[in-house]
Design goal:
The complex is a heterodimer of chains A (104) and B (362). Chain A has 104 residues and is an alpha+beta fold. Chain A has three helices and five strands; from the N terminus they run E-E-E-E-E-H-H-H. In chain A, helix 2 crosses helix 3. The chains are: A alpha+beta (104), B alpha+beta (362).
Chain lengths: 104, 362
């Protein structure tokens, strides 16, 4: 897990960068290995991109914006695509959707 | 150290369609102890390790009586072999022979032969016919299992559990039976080879996980490796696997070994049905056929056993890295019928002659 030091006028504070998906490993070609179950999946480029972002700490509510920017999509299409991807992530247990906010 | 030069005997030398662990154990031992002399206890002149040229081939091999002949027959043959080989250690690799070695522990000690074996109570508790009770007594998830002593009981047990159901021999063989009509053919084949009783077991459908390791006899595990089977043969044997790091599986494995106070090599076989905990299917009292895979990635369990046999402090083994995987590969080994005839008639083949007295020892 990576850490970074936050400089402030007070004593420096070390904060942990989020790493939500500790049991997942990402490989080339969109492959993801669940190291606990030994199951592996091949994701679409968009799914791979979002899952890596989520692992790095991006919130689900920001997914639509990322898709809009990366793929030059309109907002409605991005929201729809994100919802479909979130459903796919839920089946293998990649995300805990309890309490997740709906994408904006 | 003189004891380091004594030979180690390993059994289970066939690496065919239903591979036995012995060759993998030999290969693992040689990774850590290149000059170790390995003597093969063979049951058939056609065992594939007898025709290899690699690190898994024994330095010498001797035919031994089938386990069904009993411990006395094994001991007699062992004494014949000892006239030619200075065997100081044994790692038995077949389920069917463990009981004989357990019965000979005193005689092995008298002959200064070291062998790590489970306690009799541990060995009996994990037996297929007793395993379900052991699991229930210790809160270990397991498929529903009944034991049948005759054909009528087999039918009653299968009806009680519900089809499809597994019909298993007390040591080897298993058939998945889908209806009452298929029962007789399934258990008759098994009974003809292994006798009664027959194990009737609930069929669980899910991912298969295996955990191999070495128990220290005091309830702990010296080291282990956990895999999920990636490929299976038509008869369910693992042909590829991937290392997993699963805390629930680790905790359950530790609980099982602690409950048994297991001593020595083991393999735990689990099935994970979605939404249910890992269910313990079998406990094998020896290393699995894939044991050389963790040896190749820094977790040499046969070497750890040998170090215990030497009374050395075992090396600390690092956990196997999740994501490392193996795929089994079959090769054709060239031989000559003269080799088969020699083994079948004389019961002995020497691949690496012993040094003559006066020559430098390795």
């Amino acid at each position: 897990m990576k850490t970074r030091r936050v400089q402030s006028k007070a004593a420096p504070v070390t904060v942990q960068a989020p790493h939500r998906l500790a049991g997942l490993r990402f490989y080339a070609g969109g492959f993801v290995l669940d190291t606990e179950s030994g199951s592996f999946y091949r994701l679409t480029p968009a799914a791979d991109y979002l899952l890596r972002k989520y692992d790095a700490g991006t919130e689900v509510r920001d997914f639509a914006g990322l898709i809009e920017t990366r793929y030059d999509q309109d907002h409605a299409s991005a929201v729809r695509d994100v919802e479909l991807l979130l459903n796919q992530f839920a089946a293998p247990g990649f995300l805990d959707r309890t309490g997740e906010k709906e994408p904006a | 150290m003189k004891s380091d030069l004594r030979s180690i005997a390993v059994s289970g030398l066939h690496r065919g369609e239903n591979p036995q662990p012995g060759a993998a154990v030999a290969a693992s031992l040689r990774r850590a102890f290149p000059s170790l002399r390995v003597v093969g206890f063979s049951y058939d002149p056609m065992e594939s390790s007898l025709y290899g040229q690699g690190a898994d081939r024994p330095d010498a091999a001797y035919l031994v009586p089938f386990p069904g002949a009993g411990p006395r027959a094994l001991l007699e043959r062992l004494d014949m072999i000892r006239a030619e080989e200075d065997i100081g250690f044994v790692i038995p690799c077949l389920d069917s022979e463990i009981a004989n070695f357990c019965a000979l522990q005193s005689e092995l000690r008298d002959r200064s032969i070291q062998c790590i074996l489970p306690a009799e109570s541990s060995f009996e508790q994990r037996h297929k016919s007793n395993l379900y009770k052991f699991c229930r007594d210790n809160g270990i998830p397991a498929p529903r299992t009944l034991v049948a002593a005759d054909p009528e009981e087999v039918e009653e047990c299968a009806k009680e559990i519900g089809y499809p159901v597994y019909i298993k021999g007390r040591l080897y063989h298993a058939h998945l039976v889908h209806s009452r009509e298929g029962l007789a053919a399934a258990y008759e084949e098994i009974v003809n080879t292994w006798g009664w009783p027959i194990i009737v077991q609930e069929n669980l459908v899910g991912e298969e996980y295996d955990v191999t390791g070495v128990g220290n006899g005091r309830g702990g595990i010296d080291a282990s490796c956990s895999i999920r089977k990636l490929l299976r043969t038509a008869n369910g044997k693992g042909f590829a696997g991937i290392v997993v790091a699963n805390p629930e599986l680790d905790t359950l494995s530790q609980h099982i070994v602690r409950a048994l106070k297991w001593n020595g090599p083991f393999e735990l076989e689990f099935v994970k049905v979605a939404g249910r905990p890992h269910a313990l299917m079998e406990i094998n009292p020896r290393f699995p056929a894939w044991i050389d895979f963790p040896s190749q990635i820094g977790c040499n369990l046969p070497a750890l056993v040998f170090e215990r046999l030497l009374k050395h402090r075992p090396r600390k083994l690092e956990p196997c890295e999740p994501g490392r995987m193996f795929v089994r590969h079959s090769v054709d080994l060239a031989g000559d019928f003269a080799d088969f005839a020699a083994m079948a008639s004389v019961g002995r083949r020497v691949f690496s002659p012993l040094p003559v007295a006066g020559e430098a020892t390795p």
